[in-house]
Design brief:
Chitinase A, domain 3; 7-stranded antiparallel β-sheet; alpha+beta; two-stranded antiparallel ribbon
Length: about 240
Amino acid sequence: MKTLKFLTVCVLGAALLASCSNGSSKKLPGITQSQIDSVSYAVGVSFGGMLKQSNMENLNFSQINKAMHDLLDGKELKISEEMVGQVINAYMIKAQVAIGKMKEEEQAKFLAENGTKDGVNTTESGLQYKIEVPGNNEIMASPEDTVEVHYTGTLLDGTVFDSSVERGESVKFPLNAVIKGWTEGMQLVGEGGKIKLWIPYELGYGPRAMGPNLPGYSTLVFDVELIKVYKAASAETEEK
């Protein structure tokens, strides 16, 4: 799917480059140079965003530029258009494996060091947590329950990718309908408590990228306040 999107952007970029290039085409009536410059920059942003999301930031941009001009100028191509998809797919498969290995090593190093810090506990699954405020240990969540929380989620470098605190609105969700790290972690603190979670990517979103701010293989860090636990039995009774 990513390859299809990537190729779509390539085609769009080539088409717009062909229509906007100063030397290879006629200027369209009513189109100013300023507009051409703006759309050219916009294409660059779109193209760059797709490269970043596809883990292809390390490409040789001079070769990209050369290939596009060779195509537009009708020159013989080093790689035929029929082979483009296969070449990109083969690279992306290898790159995915390499990135996965690199992220595994980074995560293992971080968790090994983090696990030695005061108050940090590691569960059998690899989840790490620290109880900031214990809360009411007589009201603990089970997987079937619904919880109401405030949270801030960051990457290991501190980048915030999601925050109900910033939105100013708490969130409710069934505990068995979220990532494994949340399902396990929110059973470790009582209602009214606060917990910090370090979730390995295997217990999070795995190798999937969840938007530009949450790349694949991300180790997730959550600061969570468990506002309320809605017990499953009570919820069923209320519905009846």
